[in-house]
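Assemble and predict.
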Amino acid sequence: MTDLIESIGKTSVNATKSFRDTLSFATAIILKMFNKNSYSSATRMVLISQIYFTSVQVLPLFIGISIIFGSLLIGIVFHIIKTLGLDEYLGRILMGLVVTELSPFVTVLLIALRSSSAINAEIAVMKVNKELDTLNKFNIDVLDYLFLPRIISGVISVALLSFLFSILALTSGLLFSKLLFGMSLDTYSNVLLNSANFYDIVISLIKCCTFGFFITLIPIRFGLHASKDLTSIPIAVLNGMIDVFIAIVLIEVLSLILIFI
Amino acid sequence: MDAPLISNLDVWINISLIKQYHENLPEDKAELLVLQYLSRFSVEHIAKKRNPALLNKERFYAMLLRAAMVIDSIIVIDRPFKIIPDIPDDQFIYDSLKIIDDSFKECHIFDYAWFKDRYRMIHV
């Protein structure tokens, strides 16, 4: 019994410590983000290449997934709306479901699977190879040069790709609105525009930025946990990705609470 | 004192990084500067290569140039025969330093005492 309590206590202390460390790392990054001295020519170059890797390279896959997944979901939603006779809530349901919930969630899952794991492994390998020490020896702040561009790129990429997902899903909704409800383009557009709520869009944007921030910040932090051994790399990636998943769920829950308050 | 090249960056970025970060030198100018330096060693072709693809001598050039990018640099070479084990003596190191002697203030080489015989050109 004592062992059990001890184990629970130890886990809780570790979780609290990890959460506190993540927040203090996030604060350091935010302070750097708003300091114009952080953006040297080298940092800008990394930022551009990171945006390319995170949001441009993924475009063909992302567009394909958005069209297939978006159309399927929109089809199901339209079918449910028609079956339950909720025609008058069509716009509200679409904007609420697609723009505020679905787009950020699908986008963040894809970016987390693709980029977060890559960033986590990259930083861990750099740590093991002593490349981070090399940067320190040349008086190059790794926060400025390595971490900040990756995090900003995460924020921009999730926000933009989420917007793209919304556009593609809502466009495929046009097809279903024509087939199931006989709606014209004008009527469909009007229904969506009338249902657009500025507050929802702001919440969605904040959610995307928060997702993007933490799904890049957490892998960096866990990448730094790697020791000098090669075997510490998979452990760092595994722990980092678990925390990324927990962060995604936490942000989703918090945003839902915020919306329903 | 290991200071390896950053493995996920091209050689030219490894070298230009110092000027770009500390002096905010624009990317195009930094690339041109690095290419000029690499051409002194006739190794411009390594500019777009990465660390694992380099030969020992090419890696030494890249590391040397990177160190020379620091303003008023004092270059410290720690156990050079570890970076370029395939050279018999210090002739290659001496020649390399001579080619860029306008780019650094001082150079210090540290090595094990039992390698003293391999240093013929450089005073150790």
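Chain A has nine helices and no strands.
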